[in-house]
Amino acid sequence: MSLFWTLLGGLVNVATVLLVAPFFEGVLRKVTARIQSRQGPPLRQPYFDLLKLLGKEDIESGETPLMQRFAVYLSLASVLTVACLIPMGFPAPMNGAGDAILLIYLLTLAGVCTLLAGLAAGSTYSLLGISREMMAMIALEPLFAVAIVIGAVKTGSFRLDTVLHGSVYGAGFPLSGLLMLVVMVLSFQAFVQRVPFDTAEAETEIMEGALIEYSGPKLALFKYAQMAKLVLYSGLFVTLFVPWGNRLAFPFGWLVFWTKVFGLVLLVTLVAATHARYRIDQALRYFAGLLGVALVALVLASYGY
Amino acid sequence: MTLPYPAQAQPVPERFRGRPIFDAAKCIGCAGCANNCPAREILVYDVCQEIRILKYLGRRCTYCGRCADVCPEKAITMSHEFENATDSIGDLQQSIELFMSTCQRCGRCFKEPSPLEQLKLKGYRLDDLGNERWVYRSKAYLDEEAAADDVRIELDE
Amino acid sequence: MFGRSLWVFHANSGGCNGCDIEVLNVLTPYYDAERFGIKLVGSPRHADVMLCQGPAMRSTAKALQRAYEAMPAPKLVFAIGSCACGGGLWFDSYTVLGPVEKLIPVNFYIPGCPPRPEAILYGVAVALGLVDKKTAPVRFKQLELPIPRYHPGDLRGQDEMVVYEKLEKV
After folding, report:
1. Are the beta carbons of B39 and B92 closer than 8 angstroms?
2. What is the DSSP string of A88-156?
3. Which one of A157, A163, A251, C119 has the lowest number of neighbouring Cβ atoms within 10 Å?
């Protein structure tokens, strides 16, 4: 019986993420266009893009075609597994299967897949793109890990349903929780790879970075994984820091969760449309500062603040 | 602030130079346009002493308007059409076949009274219509062989 | 789906950059090509359409051919500007090999020097089948000649008695 609910919950989560991710990307492009005083593409444009890419010829090029395939499938698979671990209005389907450490590792794996993709291509541009992505990831994953660890320290367990429900605030004065909230808001754009910090993918927007040798269906899957990452990171942020209302009865909690994610996507769009891109060294200095503040928050959390 | 382009066409400026339109009714066949086209896009072929074919190929035309400037009869107008996209480049051709009067004494050439007249093409010219090539040589008179179907022409390589 | 989302790769093989600027204009907010789903991408492997400008030059010929082969099928090539359509003003210069169609097969031509951004958008619309093209070859032939044409081979006799054999040879 519980297997059935697990499967059903997992299916609902994955299906929702897959359906909604291109829509949010469409909203992002449309709002960016409106901010730039032009009409943008229709809201369903990313669906058309993905369908068109699925119909193109699949040219396998680059140094190792096998690793190319592996990187794409692993990327989408790890992203969809994370979708099963987040409580989106109802308890996460794979609650008992893993804890918060697994979540951190799966998200890192999604980033490593970009590394594999760039290595599989082997061209100068892709190697440059992935070197920047790795530098950014080294500075960013600790931020996210510290947020989860603060939640675990405050609630005393790594279980997903306790950590992912606003555990950073905990009991007593939530100083470290608020500090962590500020740090995450300031660095959120980097997690979802949007403008001030998208040196990895779109920096070589002239040359597309790690994805330079992908074409057709594999590119569609990669783009899908990137769109889903936007949704998932927003979902994680919502469950960690703004969880009030997520535990209502089934339809309402679910709707509240997706409304909050939508609001966060709009915030990401606004910041992305009005800012310029940072160079990699400027971005790293920024993250180093935020990491220092995050560690201070961790120390405060371990002392009970 | 976006122009609703396909829905509403925007007005072009007055002196905008679009595609040149050749009015065959006014053309006198002086081939001043062919002589002065910087891209060598207008070809002249004299079938015989009395018939001249002028062919405008639209491929390399840079819409500079020198042909319209030189034309003594104002037979060429730079229209306001810029929507010339096509999938076959031969769609932009305009060709005119004209009857040319002959001079009583020598056939075609005459002394030009003005600098404008001196810009016109003198003598006979046989461009390569089949391969759409401009041939850099004019002849003062037509040979007997030149008037038949198999044309022997000298190409400047 | 091809008609709703076109990803464009921009390849300038030696032109003067006039048409480059017009293509860039098409992507700005004033003419906004993105509302038709057209997006500029950086790699030929992601693209459906290659916008070629500039004539085929000796120095960039190989690079243009490799970029064309790197595009996945189905693909379209647009030749933008007079240089790409027919060789341009410098067709007889020492590096220019001719129009772009000498190297890669071209599907659509957008002539102009440079073509207006509206002309480029119109060309894309013609390619997608949304509008009809507005050009067709024009041929004027003078059917009635005022006097008969004398071919030297049709004249018989000599000196005073010269007879013209065929009266209606046009």
Report:
1. no
2. SSS--TTGGG-BHHHHHHHHHHHHHHHHHHHHHH--HHHHHHHHHHHHHHHHHHHHHHHHHHHHHHHHS
3. A251
> Domain-by-domain residue ranges, chain C?
6-127
Nearest-CA distance A126 → chain C (Å):
11
CATH assignment of C6-127, among 3.40.190.10, 4.10.320.10, 3.40.50.12280, 3.90.550.10: 3.40.50.12280
Chain B residues close to A40, C-beta within 8 Å? none
Sorted by where each begins, the domain ranges of chain B are 20-140
The DSSP 8-state label assigned to residue C72 in this structure reads: P
Decide: A38 and A44 in contact? Cβ < 8 Å: no
Lowest mean pLDDT among A25-29, A243-247, C3-7: A243-247
The secondary structure of chain A in percent helix, strand, coil, rounded to multiples of 5, reads: 75, 0, 25
Q: What is the pLDDT of residue B141?
A: 59
Residue A239 has pLDDT above 50, yes or no: yes
Query: What element of type H or E holds B138?
Result: strand B138-139
Chain A residues near residue B2 by CB distance under 8 angstroms:
37-39
Residue range C136-164: mean pLDDT, rounded: 67
* Residue tagged 């104002």 (tokens): B74
For residue C37, what is the nearest residue in chain A, using CA coordinates? Answer: A41
| Pair of tokens at residue B96 | 């005119």
Query: Cβ–Cβ of C35/A41 closer than 8 Å?
Result: yes
Q: Could you tell me the sign of the dihedral formed by the alpha carbons of B67, B71, B76, B81, in that order? A: positive
d(CA B66, CA A279): 51
